[in-house]
Amino acid sequence: SKLLRRKQELKLNEPPLVPYKYPIIGHTFDYYKDTEKFLNKCVEEYGEIFSLYIFGKIETFVGSKLSPEVFKNDKDFNFDIAFKEKFPLERFMNRTDKYFAPLPRILFTYLSQELPAYTERVQRTLIKAINEQIGDGTILQPPLKTFQLIIARPIAASLVGEELSEDKELVNTVAFASSDFIPFISIPPILNFIYPLLHQKFVVLLFKLINNPFKVHREVIKRKISPVVEKRLNDMKRDKESYVPPIDILQKLLELIIEDDYKADIDVLTDYIITAIFAATHTTSTFLTNAVHQYANHPEIQKELLEEQERLLGFKTGPYYTTEQMETLVKLDSFFRETLRMTTSIVFFEHKVLNAHYTFSSGHQVPKGRHVTTRLQEVHRDEESHGENPDEFNFLRHLGNPASRVEKHYLAFSFGKHACPGRYFAANEIKNALHYLILTYNIKNVNEEKAVLPIRGPFKRSSDVGLIFEKRKDINFCN
Ligand code: HEM
Q1: Cα-Cα-Cα-Cα dihedral sign, residues 313, 285, 296, 375
Q2: Which positions, given as ranges, span the membrane (predicted)?
Q3: What is the pLDDT at residue 83?
């Protein structure tokens, strides 16, 4: 039967495999040296779908036409499994696969869908953090680290409560836990040249052997949430009827795992929280940095954006805006959506084929186990979906189309069943930060340099170009 299966596999109508010169190495170096240029050349010659030989495995690449099939057919394509081959998060924590499966739903239901419950807290903590970090004006060079510290405050306040968001040590952990991890996931998987998944084994081993920053951050979270959890359990136990549960994600997780005798496993809670932090901080602070750089890169759009912020400020009655008031900032929202469209990576979303094979609408077939990757930048520059001059930054391009709305050709938050559950929260948080920054400061790049995103292989990271913040006016927020 093995032979028969092999025969069937051979009969698949596979996408063209781009020819290469050196065995084993295949396209690895050409691909990493200048991913954009190399992929463009392949598209020119082979069209919408083709395969490359990278780090010892054949990988198929799709663009605007076929990538929607990958996101829509979640029974055929799986992102999680492919992602965890590089970043086996559960294994780092000695947890079983799918251990954190309930987390996306909890974040979606109790954070993204409950924005009004968090809106004051987000504004209060953001403004405190911005005043602390930027104050009467400063130069941030490079800016990402400071934006991580700023973004960490509302994230901590929403995940584990506002009291802990005042704790410097905890905020530091929320700010840097995921970026301290990047060196680990950026090790090129050269070991896969020897055999598939050897790299994953190596990373897990390395992780367990050395005293890595993750262990330090984990210890901080556990130590900080322990007394909070203990108090909550005691309060619950003492008077179940009149207990008023605090509003944050820690509470929802506690309710998920609590046992009959009012006990809860603090290690489980810690690992859930650190997983949420991994997903939340680095993404949000990277795109906030990118947005501020785009603002500084384009002085010609500043007047119009500023006017919109001034107008909302004029309507302000209480100390905080309501969620509905924030939703009137349609130009700021479109500006943020354009930032996401223009600054995401060149490729992303490696998915693994789950079933015997998958047949694309083009007739091409990919076998079980194949990784299929989306040429994200190409999708985001699709003229039919995004309008004319798709390579240009046009901040009003998406008026009326919210940044958090996912679409088949707008994949910053992914698309389909596994789209980012934190996207409403993230977009709201970033717009709050931008609103306050734009009103309070004149913002420029150091030396009027244009901030361009550095590229490493297929991935982009935020620019290190310095940002100058000059106080333009004092705004009496939340008094
Ligand atoms: C601008 C900010 C953000 C961006 C661009 C973003 C983007 C994404 C993307 C592309 C995915 C799909 C899978 C992946 O690539 O890892 C994802 C998944 C996820 N995001 Fe976000 N995200 C952001 C903020 C957040 C925040 C603030 C939270 C939590 C409060 C969050 C929680 C998650 C979780 C839990 C998943 C996994 C979903 C699943 O496996 O079904 N994200 N995000």
Answers
A1: negative
A2: none
A3: 87
Judge if the beta carbon of residue 458 lies within 6 A of ligand 1. Answer: no
Site to substitute for ligand 1 among 80, 420, 434, most atoms within 8 A of C-beta? 420
Residue 211 has pLDDT above 80, yes or no: no
Give me the chain's average pLDDT, please: 93
Sign, CA torsion 217/223/225/226: positive
Q: Are 294 and 393 in contact (CB under 8 A)?
A: yes
Q: Is the CB of 122 under 6 A from ligand 1?
A: no
In this structure, are residues 288 and 443 in contact, taking their beta carbons and an 8 Å threshold? Answer: no
- The CA 418 to ligand 1 mean position distance, Å, reads 9
Tell the residue number behind the tokens 């987000």, with chain if given: 122
Handedness of CA 106, 284, 278, 368 (dihedral sign): positive
Q: Which atom of ligand 1 is nearest to the CA of 104?
A: 35
Average pLDDT rounded to a whole number, residues 289-297: 98
Q: Which residues are annotated as a binding site for heme?
A: 420
Closest residue by CA, ligand 1 atom 21: 420
- Which tokens go with 420? 């980012």
Q: Which domains does the chain carry?
A: 1-96+347-374 (no CATH), 100-344+375-471 (1.10.630.10)
Query: Edge-to-edge strands of the sheet including 137-140?
Result: 137-140, 467-471, 441-445
Q: Are strands 455-456 and 459-460 parallel, antiparallel or unpaired?
A: antiparallel
d(C-alpha 405, C-alpha 402), whole Å: 5
Give the mean pLDDT of 155-174: 97
Q: Is 196 exposed, middle or buried (CB count within 10 Å of its CB: 0-12, 13-18, 19+)?
A: middle
Determine the Cα–Cα distance for residues 84 and 95; give it in Å rounded to an integer: 13
Helix residue ranges per DSSP H, 161-212: 168-176, 182-185, 198-209
Residue 89, beta-bridge partner list = none
Cβ-contact 27, 59 below 8 angstroms: no
Name the one residue in this structure whose structure tokens are 């698309």: 415
Mean pLDDT score, 152-156 = 98
**What is the ipTM for the molecules in this complex?**
0.98
Q: Does residue 64 contact residue 379 with C-beta atoms inside 8 Å?
A: yes
Structure token digits, residue 438: 């734009």
- CA-closest candidate to residue 193, choices 31, 346, 81, 27: 27
Pairing status of strand 459-460 against strand 348-353: unpaired
In the chain, the N- to C-terminal Cα span, in Å, equals 75
> Which of 463, 445, 430 minimizes the C-alpha distance to 130?
430
413 lines ligand 1 (CB under 6 A): yes
